Fold each of these.
Amino acid sequence: MAVANDLAHWRAQIFARLLLVVFVLGLLTAVPSALLAASEGLWSIAVIDLVALVWIGVIWRWRRLSYTTRVAHFISVAYLVGAALLLKVGPVSQIYLLAVPVLAALLLGLRPALWMLALSGLTVMVLGYQDHPVPPLPGLPDYAFLRAAILSVNFMFMTAVLTLSCAVLLQHLERSFDQLSALNAEQRLTAAALARLNDMVLIAEVAPGAGQHIIFVNDAFERRSGYARAEVLGRDLRLLRGPATEQSVIDAIDQAMAQRQTVRAELLNYSKSGEAYWVETELVPLADAGGVNTHWVAVERDITERRKAEQAIHRLAFYDVLTGLPNRRLLMDRINQLQAGCARSGGAAAVMFIDLDRFKTINDARGHATGDALLCQAANRLGALMRQADTVARIGGDEFVVLLAHLAPGPGEATRAALTVAEKIRAALGRDCAIGGQVYNCTASIGVTLLPKAGTPAQSAQDLLREADTAMYRAKSQGRNGIAFFEHAMQAELEQRLTLERDLAAALAAGHLQMHVQPQVDRAGRPVGGELLMRWPRADGASVPPHVFIPVAEESGLIVALGAWALRQACAAVLRLQAAGLAMPLSVNVSPTQFRQPDFVAQVRQVLADTGAPARLLVLEVTEGLLIDKMDDTIGRMHQLTALGLRFSIDDFGTGYSSMAYLKKMPLYELKIDRSFIQDTPHDANSRALVQSMLAMAGHLGLRVVAEGVETRAQADFLTAHDCACLQGYLYARPMPLDALIALLGRVSSLP
């Protein structure tokens, strides 16, 4: 239907132009002809010309008539003019009748044209025979009708040729028009679909020697690029490339285009405003019938969000979220690359393990926000010291690893170069950090291992990292804020430590551990309490000192099980003393790790219920380090335990980092002055002043004081002179088994 309407519209336009041409030409020819005919007395011809001209003018102006009606009037004018002139002028006027079927073919189609052809032929024969007898033809009988018929047939023949040619041409034109209209409709549909695609589409025309010039872009391209269609038409296909577009990808695309091959790539483009965005593009060549590449079609899909998601996943997988540094996973890959590079070049490299000293104390005391800020500052300082070939990674907590590449080839020179960098790192990390208006200082312990090692088989990344870690622990054990290089003897020490950890767990499970008691005496030297101390005798008669195995238990997590065992041993000791008629309070150490167990209060309640030990004779010794993490929760838990009847003592008082404000908040029973303050008293003025201050403060707060490490009579006299209620140390007794304590107490109680 749409095609038919288009064809009718086309015919109507042709007819309108034809009427205008005929009317204009009529004015130019009919008026002079009419004047000439009138001057010669041929008034009928003049009237015919003028009537025809007026009639055509009316048809041209009266456009409200239907197309068919107007055409019928026009053909009627032509027919009547031809017939009239044929009557008045003679056979020479047949040209007018010749035009009638031809016009019908062009304006109405084949069938009306055939009817008009027959009418015109009949008119020629009838009018030509009646009014103007045909002159005799040579060689033919003198029959007027026959002569008219022959002339009519010849007229119809020529007219039919013209009419049929026009009709056939018009039919072919109609069919071509139909096909063209269908193609145009399909093209409009395709163009509309391309324009509304979410993918960006560009079509570029190949200009020999001048690149590819854009001839089409769709709406999606305009939206994403910010360019209007008119701004890019005629410009090069490389319009959207920018400074960060990967040259290797561009080279691959150019190579494929030079070979006229389809190419797919992910490319960084730039919008009109300069915004970078990623596209997944496919370039397809189009060739003409001769195989010549004439156009390129580019279909692009915006994959910016996908690339961002991929980059985010990659960062989560290979980078530390807080500092942005490579994480352990990426570090291992970098160590492997470092080893491969050393093997190729013959050079040396170093792995440094860095641990921030006292970081946990600051993090626990000031909160994770401060700790995170401190880690970020440390990461920035490390990054500022490194070369492009080096790597700084954070592998967890306050632990960093630095990989130094391309050190001097000789072991001596490499060691000196690594030491120089390590000193710079130690100095940088040791500078004060300003966070939230507060100044913090956090030094670093650094362990270094070099690679490759002469005469040593190829090491794995884990081996190198373990060596650097081992060296770092040596630096920390030597007083922190130091640097240590890995030595094979350190590995032996580490293995001994692991053996010690395993043996400690076995000793606890087998019941080989023991609890000794060190008496606490009053100012008169009478035992008034005791502290339970853990001992580990070996099968060979030797023993492992507490300062050796307790840190191992803390680091390995065994301290929780040891603490639970010690609590039961304390309950059993209190019951034995009570049964012997020697009831007195006993203190037992509780580690911060044990105290922070979620079910610690429930554990204590269960032990008291199981053993029946009187809670009033048990004193739990805790360190100040317990108070720096979640103080409110800690104090709340202490109140729950004091409600059971237990009492609390602050061990090693004065050596911690927490605020003194906790003293008035906590349900405390006593303070234990650390031996480090007692050992120089009374000879050292500073120590003497500190001890006096502690005793005075405790007196004002109503707290009992125990002085640890009393070894001389001068120390004891000074303490008793300043109202220290209780003393503990080698001057009075060493730690002893419970049986020995019971015997000692028995002897003391029997004295007058």
Amino acid sequence: MRRRGFNKLLLGAGLGLPAMNLFRDGVAYAQGRSGGLTAIINPEPPVLTLPLNQQIPVGTIGGKIYESLLDYDFDLNPRPQLAERWEVSDDGLTYRFHLVRNAKWHDGKPFTSADVVFSCNVMLREVHPRARGVFERCESITAPDDHTVVFKLKEPFGPFLLAFETSSAPIAPRHIYEGTDYRKNPANDTPIGTGPFKLKEWRRGSHIHLVANEDYYIKGQPALTEIFYKIIPDGASRSVAMESGQAQLSQFSDIEPFDVPRLAAMPQLKMTTRGYEFFSPVLWYEMNLRRKPFDDIRFRKALRLLLDPKFIVERINFGLGKPATGPIASTTRFYDPNVTIYRTDVAAAKALLDEMGLKPDAGGVRARIRFLVVPFGEFWTRLGEYFRQALKQGGIEVTLDTTDAGGFAEKVSNWDYETTSNMLYQNGDPALGVARSYISSNIRKGVMFTNTQGYSNKEVDDLFARAAVQTSDKERAALYSKVQKILVDDLPVLWMTEQQFPTIHDARLENLIDSAIGVNGTFGRARWA
């Protein structure tokens, strides 16, 4: 039976009973009438401490608990969050932030500039790969008083005001983390932030329950009384939960692409792709360049020639997205389409493999490699299966390996893999979201979302460094054009698609998506009509 028919059978013949079974664990989930919200989360996050982990589910839930200095509208213009206003010096070297005066941590301690200095100058520089690259540019980060923070840069850095999105620079409580082993701190199990929601309960394998922060510093927020993030590993069950109303929100890849058009057409639901502008994610297949034969550009080109991004867009994404041409998405600044364009060409791929001496054996196999499947749902499983099928055309045998979310991050960050897939955010500017994946200074073992593939090219390092400090957009564009051409010819990763994500929610929800980070926002203004 087709999946669509199966879902209808569950809802029709069983009157929604199978969906109800998803929630029979002693928990009265929010249904909107109480002012609460039940949302889907998949997979279950390994932690909720956003400064330590920025995986998708951590950012989604952590964005309700933690905050940073700024928020961004859909055009990526900065807006106040923990900073109520700011000034930038004429030379672009000094940024002075004036903080809100009545914010408190969830344990009741006052939020002050000391927390910002500690977070940006100490903790995040050790544990957060994106933040490290930004705040290492600071000559000093100081607090003249309890409600002012001054960042002095060593040299101009054009996108500095884009660096304070919540998952990019989450502010952590100094009184909890200073002088501790950040990754082993007991508070990681009960994260403490300044956001409009705080953690009440985390029942592993079942749900994460957030409740309204009664001491939140913005009057009238949050409007929602609570949020249940229900952990539903099965894709069909997630679709049923949304269709039946047992859940009122899904995001990112929660709903398998083939189910999105059907749910989007239902009158009780709304679908939008807004709220991902800051991220503009690019999907790729990644190779560990430290291992043979991936260190050979001929092998990487052969893999690319065996793959078809259009197939992923049309058959796996069901139209959500477009083929990628390189490291910078066409939806962000400084994109250049004038790069080498790879077409699917099995014969050319085989010729490259022949040139390498990888001749087919009696079974037609030229090489055997392993692929680590991303454990975030059926979409990612299908990406792995497609990779295996596509490479088989060239005589490359792929073995699929599986693990959980924590195991995946551990293996990739510690370079214990051969190939995998990944999707990284652009974060508004190439200096923030793109360079980190290719500059050699960001090859850091044990740290996820860095240059985990191990690519090193001095010219690329130099171009990214120069582009980041230019004050002229014209000069930055020229440098980024050059680096795009080099990277596309080197193929440190195999770029596939510029992803679009669907957010599907109950049509009665208002003010849910109100920023460029969408479902990763605070939900402070979200309410039921």
